[in-house]
Every structure is written in C-alpha cells, then in structure tokens.
C-alpha cells in the first residue's frame, strides 16, 4: 500500500478556498485599509510631483496594493472568530491569494484604462503588484500564526 499523498485528503477545491477567503475578508478592517491606500496614493503623488511629473496611475496602483495588503493582513490579525477565519489563519498563504488576485485585477484595469500601458504592460504591472499584496498578506499571516503558537 502506498503512502497517502496530499491529494488523498478530503479538502477544499480552489473555488471553495476563494469562497472561504472571501468570507474571511468580510472581517477585514476596510476603513483602515482605505485610509492606508489613500495615504500611500497621496505620498506617491507627492514623490512624483517632487520629481517633476504627475503619474496618477502609478500612484493609484500603489494605493491599491496598500488597500488589499492591509485588508488581508488586518483580517488575519484581528481577533474575530469563525470557521472562515480559522481556515485563513491556518492557511495564510492560500488565503493571501484573494488579496493578491484582487489587487492584480484592479491594477490591470487601472493600467489599461487610465494608464499608458497596453495589455502586455498592464498584465506585467498587475502581476507584480498582485505579488506584493500576496506577499505582504502571507507574511503577516505567517508571523501572526507563529506568535499565536508561541503564546499558546
């Protein structure tokens, strides 16, 4: 008899994981996330103005990353309970896919609609912005998970 593999375990499909992640994101601190997105957008605009040019799409993209990273990390770090939050806290990197994908989609639309990027440039921009939101959320969840284990 062969050893069981990860695929032998009954678990969630990718679609189910996104649905659970969405439920967990409903507990995100959206006001704080929106405030951080606005601050990052404003700061980026100021830096661009100091540099001598106005680049609104880039500033908005940075703000979108901050918005989704703070929302995702905040959802993981809040003390709220529930099955979706328990799953998200035990699977921070899988949970982080949703904020990363959301950031990528919004940045793609911004890059193509109001930026000077074409489809290829917009896709590249979206991928790396989504990766930053994914990484920030996953790291926050992993750190919080490690701290909870130590304190228990």
Biggest beta sheet attributes: none
Helix segment tally: 7
> What is the terminal separation in angstroms?
37 Å
Q: From N to C, what is the helix and strand string?
A: HHHHHHH
Mean pLDDT: 88
Q: How many structurally independent domains? A: 1
Rg, nearest Å: 18 Å
What structural class do the secondary elements suggest?
A: mainly alpha
Weakly predicted, low-confidence segments: 1-5
Strand share of the residues? under 5%
Helix percentage = over 70%
| Total number of strands | 0
Shape: globular
State the gist of this model.
The chain has seven helices and no strands. It is mostly helical and 152 residues long.
Report on this structure.
Helices cover 77% and strands 0% of the residues. The chain has 152 residues and is mainly α. The chain has one domain (15-151). Helix 2 packs antiparallel against helix 3 (56-77), helix 3 runs antiparallel to helix 6 and helix 6 runs antiparallel to helix 7 (119-151). The protein is globular. It starts with 13 loop residues before the first helix and ends with a helix. The model is unreliable at 1-5 (pLDDT under 50).
